Amino acid sequence: MPGPAAQTGATSGAPRVLTRRGTELFMLVFAAVIVTFALLLVEVAQEQTVTRDLFLYGAAFLVLFGAAHFAVRRWAPYADPLILPLVALINGIGLVILHRLDLAEASGGPFTGKQILFTTVGVVLFVLVLKFVQDHRTLAQYGYTCGFVGLALLALPGLLPSSISEANGAKLWISIGGMSIQPGEFAKILLLIFFASFLVSKRELFTTAGKRFLGIDWPRARDMMPVLVAWMLSIGIVVLEKDLGTSLLFFGIVLVMLYIATERAVWVFLGLSMFALGCIVAFNLFDHVQVRVNTWLDPLGPEVDGKDPGFQLRTGLMGMAKGGIEGSGLGKGLPQKTPWASSDFIISAVGEELGLIGLMALFLVYLLLMMRGLRSALAVRDSFGKLFAGGLSFTLALQLFVVAGGVTGLIPMTGLTAPFMAAGGSSMLANYVLIALLLRVSDAARRPQAPAKPKPKQAPIAEAHTELVERPR
């Protein structure tokens, strides 16, 4: 029979779980209502006939994320109740923008049907990860395997013929029979597992072992070498494949995880110094880097080899300027004039039609998602979970910063896409796996600990000695 404390914890924990999951379901319904209403506004603005199919889209959206909700209720009942609704809302806003581009007959469409298909497959992967990854700590046991497979996935497109791996000058894809996949999107999760597991196992050696040089305690080379090799290989591979965005993403992820593991700001300083040096070297070695930097510095610059590299950035900036503070309204702008508005520049489409207010609201939703992830990282009890959840959350944060910075002209364009919004199957699938793993860590962080078993009472030493002495022979 469990003790009174155990019974009290069990009975008090159940209502809290039901409250969390009830909040999650309510927020999912609210997100579905917002998405349906936004689709209705787009149809009205484009003078389309509003049919019941529009409301079926909203119902299907709710059913899809309702299935995700019940998966969380079944396999991660203590997980954060806001993470999934925030993801659903961001995903829904992306569907609205893609549907608006379809109505404008933007080149490359239709986008909506494909995005719904990718979202469905992503939710299926989300459910499977929650079901089969019962404890995030088991992933640490396969750290080196994940690192090897992640590097192999990164290098695979570069080893294949350009006819099935190259798109827009970058060798990132594997295209067979009309289907394409970007292995690097899944490699980032596998490499995150490797870096987190390695840094946890070598954490003490990073701060104590080694020699002191220039006032810094350096770890031993044999302890530092595996993570440095994996780090440099991952960055080098994607640089050679002309994927600057992913290389920047890997660089930032490892740098932040080093800081979290050691709590030493010197690693951030050294990393940023290496980044500055790498930028100078890349600018002088690679022509495509020079083109992107020159376009960033002067979007109105001259043509290069008969092409106008600044056209995309100019049209995106002009669209956001046209939207102004309040925006032109859903369905009333011209986002289709911007090349790749469905992927690289979907943020500019939001800024044009929803204005600065809508864009800041979208960034706030992203910020809440990242904060909830970081909160789970702080609350989880094991070191691997802290590093892993922190890395997952920072991946979303850095990816959004790079995308928004490139669209607004703050930094050069890198080719990354906005998580859960932009058209693209590989990014969508990988990000849903990421969210499932983040919810698994969140469930472990919020799950109440089992009460400790009371230790058996032992007789005091004096009493035991007296009993021993007085025992008859």
Automatic annotation (TrEMBL):
Keywords: Cell shape, Membrane, Transmembrane, Transmembrane helix. The chain crosses the membrane at residues 25-42, 54-72, 79-99, 111-130, 142-160, 172-200, 221-238, 244-261, 266-286, 345-369, 390-411, 417-439. The keyword Hydrolase does not apply. The keyword Membrane applies. InterPro entries: FtsW/RodA. Residues 448-473 are annotated as: Disordered. It is found in: Membrane. It is a multi-pass membrane protein. Residues 464-473 have a biased composition (Basic and acidic residues). It comes from the Bacteria. PANTHER family: CELL CYCLE PROTEIN, PEPTIDOGLYCAN GLYCOSYLTRANSFERASE RODA. This is FtsW/RodA/SpoVE family cell cycle protein. It comes from Saccharopolyspora oryzae. The lineage of its organism: Bacteria, Bacillati, Actinomycetota, Actinomycetes, Pseudonocardiales.
